[in-house]
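Study this pair:
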Amino acid sequence: MKSAGCRAGNTGTFNGVAYQKLGDVGKPIIQLTDKAQPYLLTTPEKDKSINIQKVKLAEEQLKQVTGIKTMDDGKSAVAEYTTTYKNVTPFSSLVA
């Protein structure tokens, strides 16, 4: 995990679920390294106070408009489209 800019703290996993030792409750499960700096996003202070840090996973971009349906009122429409992900970061591997 060090390549993703993070490392596990004093934790473990059981059936794919992260856990902490009782004495470590309230401490971050993942500790970010200096490699994470380019991927850190602005995080509200209330989240930071409980050890939450938002990180960039990728950039979602419009790939193709697959359909447009005009509504009965003639003033609005619904578009159907597909997207793709570009500039995927190492943190994307942490998302199932």
Observations:
- The radius of gyration is 20 Å.
- The CA atoms of residues 63 and 83 lie 5 Å apart.
- The longest strand covers residues 59-70.
- The beta strands are 6-8, 11-14, 17-20, 30-32, 59-70, 77-86.
